[in-house]
Amino acid sequence: MRQRLARAGSILLWLTLISIAPSLCAQTHPSGEIPLERCDRLPIVKLKIGGAEARFLVDTAATSMLNIKSMSSGLSKKVQITSWTGTAITNAREVFVRELSLGNHTVYDLTLEAVDLTPIANACHGQIDGILGVDLLEKLGVTIDLQRSVARMEPRHAFPEASVISDMESAMQGCWKAFNNAETDRLEQCFDRDFVMTVPTAEYRGREQVGQYLRERYFQGGPRARLEMRMSDQRAVGNVVWTLYDFSVESEAVHEAGRGMMICRKSGDRWYILSMHDAPAASESPK
Fold it and tell me: Does this model's pTM top 0.90?
């Protein structure tokens, strides 16, 4: 009888320990901290892409990217990779990510390169769906403590720059949509009254002059021109944001691609574009 009671007591003790184990583990990491896992000796963090869990290698010296083996959509292109084994040219794709979350911090509408990370995954004998680099760490408001092996989620109010940039990016989506819908009046309202647009062959000043240029070049007859705009390397000071961008415009009559720099400013509750400076892609010649 005593042996049965002792055995029953042991079972109850183990069941109790199992039931409280998750809470005991959670208590070892303060609120706002996410424990890092390991793939061999490489730090790994779990995040979510569109609600699906993914394992990302943390590399504060790299640019964020996805594993092409984990993602199946995007446009094939050539990119430079400057992490792990130095600069190299490789086949890659661009993948649009609607929503990416780490803990309770979320960023939206990302375009990331996707390359084959199989060699890294094989080397550490684990699943790797992407690389979490310095650009996304900044957008998410995350710092990495490798000594304690945690990702620390800083309060959003501690990163006003990230919030301002995100607000600007959301506003610009409406501007690009107005271009693609040929809504010239709405598009003109995206520009500051003293807006300056520099293209390889000319410079245009003010909403009216720029609006006339856009109508004559892109919106006269035929199917609508299609604009693709991807912003990167944003910086904010107060209510002013400047950003680099890659763009392409396609229609039956126009085929353009290039890079540029844009400066935006928030006035009241609206964002206005102060200036845009376009440069054609290396393979394009000014028209």
Answer: no
